[in-house]
Amino acid sequence: MAAEPYDIVVGRNDLTNVRVVPASPMQIGADQVHVSIESYALTANNITYGVVGESMKYWNFYPAAAGMGRIPVWGFGRIAQSNRPDVTVGERLYGYWPMSSDVVLTIGRTTPAALTETSPNRAELAAVYNNYVRVAADPGMPPGSEPYVSLVRPLFTTSFLIDDFLAENDFFGARMVLITSASSKTAMGLAHCLAQRGAGRPEIVGLTSKSNAAFVAGLGTYDRVVTYDAIGDLRAPEGAIVVDMAGGEATLRAVHAALGDDLKYSCRVGFTQWQDANPLIKDLPGVRPVFFFAPDGVKARLADWGPKAFAQRVGGASAAFVADAQRWLKLETHRGSEAIVAAYRTVLKGDARPDAGIICLP
Q: Bigger pLDDT: 247 or 82?
């Protein structure tokens, strides 16, 4: 626990406006627990939460002062105080936190495996974000794996669901899957899933910057790597899908223009190119882009497969990717509010190395 609890807040309309502010007192009422946040990952995915914070209601999870927001992150926390007899002090949780040192959760239903957060401001938000895993009961967290779990597990669930969605639709008849921002961890997870499909799968093409091209090629999961300056040379006579993790309007326009009628599906996911982000790009050549919202995929597959089978499928695939990530991911630890703010600015500017695994210790 930090000496004095604090929150890191950003401008809702200006993500570069970041500051550290004192947190509200950690006073707990009925059914509430005070959690000391131990560690969390910081990736381009967290920037996406900020970019679409208003439209997708990510700011609602952890309210802040007017005009400011608290970007959600994934990581681990420990119960410091509890007003629930079924939640003990010292117990550790994995889940969705603010960029803060401490937080108060309101606990509803509990099971041996997880807790559910039921604060009124979160009642209408996606259920997957309100579920907190009891670490001691999760077999998918062997010793030493926790930083990698924070970094890739939540992102990989999105990767898994996109792969599942594309396969269920027979890849829309396309023989190429083009993934923008190919060095982002969600993109790498998707490439990993697609590569597991073996013979008969579409070609996996990663679109990335010149500076990251060698790293992306070295992963071994992309069949081909193309740099942004070569988008105009893209051709897909047998049809293509673009999965857009970048979110930049110029990039997506260039892809649509190059592939034209050969583009069978355009899937929007993230905003690593947040400076040029536009959730409502109009008048693109060819097919209309469609946003992929992972919680909807979770809800659908829970209904189809049931919670146990869903957890087994995602957990097994995730464990394989987490194990592979330890081959190329280099952990970076940032301790304390000032160091975390500096790390946030690095990720925001797009200056983080593709093999960097940024872990924050409040």
A: 82
